[in-house]
Design a protein that fits this description.
CATH superfamily of the largest domain: NAD(P)-binding Rossmann-like Domain
Structural class: alpha/beta
Radius of gyration: 21 Å
Distance between the termini: 40 Å
Largest sheet: 5 strands, mixed
Strand content: 5-15%
Number of helices: 10
CATH architecture of the largest domain: 3-Layer(aba) Sandwich
Shape: elongated
Number of strands: 5
């Protein structure tokens, strides 16, 4: 219905396309690269997310234009956060092409490859941290007497609005947080409880743990 062509043959994809996305688990990618190697030419641009560029490029012909991409789940609603890094064979034209295509799915930034595992801990896994926080917000409201469905919708809109203000104002989150607080008001009392629970340190630890795990997986 969308006009997309499908095939069970990876080599056929290379024969019919110039820009190829390799979306596999890390342990699957080497086998796929070896399979498609005979069909890869100088006109191809290959993009993948699981493995380091240097390691994976060794399985393709020398000079292949390679970019490494890391998306996240909200790409499915065109609100993703993606970063990519280019290999030595990829130039400005390939980077511009990839960014222009992916920008329709959300924020897309070119970064040094060393940032990709950090992005995994921050945004790839970070979506789950936000869902956990949203769930806790809604459950707090349910505890105080609000129906669950309404509480979930308000929690989601609260997160959406807060994120939009960060992006559109460019203000540091600490500045925006301070704008919500009034002396002796509800917010500062609530923030005191969050600080008692070490919310900031816990979230920082979560990003660190996910980043380190991503680095370990890239080595395997």
């Amino acid at each position: 219905e969308s006009g997309c062509r499908t095939t069970h043959c990876n080599l056929e994809v290379l024969q019919e396309s110039t820009l190829v996305f390799l979306a596999t688990k890390p342990h699957i990618l080497p086998g796929v690269l070896q399979e498609i190697r005979p069909a890869v030419g100088p006109h191809h641009v290959a993009s993948w997310h699981p493995s380091p560029i240097l390691v994976s490029s060794q399985l393709l012909p020398a000079g292949t234009k390679v970019l490494r991409l890391m998306p996240n789940l909200p790409c499915v609603v065109q609100a993703g956060a993606m970063v990519f890094a280019r290999g030595s064979g990829a130039g400005d034209g390939e980077a511009t092409l990839l960014k222009s295509l992916l920008s329709s799915c959300g924020l897309c930034e070119e970064v040094p490859e060393s940032y990709i595992n950090i992005h995994t801990g921050l945004s790839g896994s970070g979506v789950a941290y936000v869902y956990l926080f949203a769930e806790a917000l809604a459950e707090g409201a349910v505890k105080m007497g609000m129906p669950g469905g309404l509480a979930s919708r308000i929690a989601a809109q609260t997160l959406l609005g807060a994120a939009k203000m960060m992006l559109e104002t460019g203000e540091h989150p600490a500045k925006l947080r301070g704008d919500v607080c009034t002396p002796g008001g509800t917010t500062i009392h609530a923030l005191h409880q969050l600080e008692k629970g070490a919310l900031r340190a816990t979230v920082m630890n979560a990003v660190e743990a996910a980043t380190n795990r991503a680095r370990d997986m890239a080595k395997d």
